[in-house]
Q: What sequence folds into this?
């Protein structure tokens, strides 16, 4: 395991990460783009656009920086897989998350273009659109909402799970398995695809 603390909003740090990875392992096979900034939770009407820019710098531009840094190694290796960790919010808007959703929607468009451009190099580019995903970020969100609304965290969780057919908030480890599928040879001819991983809360027609 090689750990390289990296601010993906900085192209130079992304390049350093890619170079150190190749120096340590000799290749880059898979890139999971999962770093994110949720922006500011507030209505668009009164939103501070600085929060939107911060989210765009990490979620969109930062992801593009790191992707660009890793593509040369994948080309040299004869192929690879890039997996974008996206969000259900792109398909099903959630109040106060406009900035986050906008940054991820821009990334979804770029993902399709990347899949088109990189296919000739046997580099696949796909995205997993996560819904509610139990982990530190969602735990923190429920704690904040509990303080704001006066409702218990369990009441808030129950409100969310009522719209999830499987009846639970998916665990982040379970959601990760979907991303691993895209990275693996099981998806060797899949590119430009978007997989919804949300317990059935959003089902595209």
A:
């Amino acid at each position: 395991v090689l750990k390289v603390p990296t601010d993906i909003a900085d192209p130079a740090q992304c390049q350093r990460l890619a170079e150190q990875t190749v120096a340590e392992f000799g290749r880059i096979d898979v890139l999971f783009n999962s770093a994110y900034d949720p922006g500011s939770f507030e209505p668009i009407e009164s939103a501070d656009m600085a929060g939107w820019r911060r989210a765009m710098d990490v979620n969109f531009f930062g992801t593009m920086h790191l992707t660009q840094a890793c593509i040369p190694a994948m080309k040299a290796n004869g192929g690879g897989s890039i997996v974008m960790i996206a969000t259900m919010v792109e398909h099903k808007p959630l109040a106060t998350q406009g900035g986050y959703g906008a940054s991820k929607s821009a990334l979804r468009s770029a993902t399709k273009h990347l899949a088109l451009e990189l296919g000739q190099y046997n580099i696949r580019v796909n995205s997993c659109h996560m819904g509610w995903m139990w982990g530190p970020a969602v735990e923190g969100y429920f704690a904040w909402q509990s303080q704001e609304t006066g409702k218990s965290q369990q009441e808030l969780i129950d409100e969310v799970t009522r719209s999830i057919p499987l009846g639970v908030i998916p665990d982040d480890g379970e959601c990760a398995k979907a991303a691993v599928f895209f990275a693996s040879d099981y998806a060797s001819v899949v590119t430009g695809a978007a997989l919804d991983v949300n317990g059935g809360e959003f089902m595209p027609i």
Observations:
- Residues 49-76 form the longest helix (28 residues).
- The CA atoms of residues 89 and 101 lie 6 Å apart.
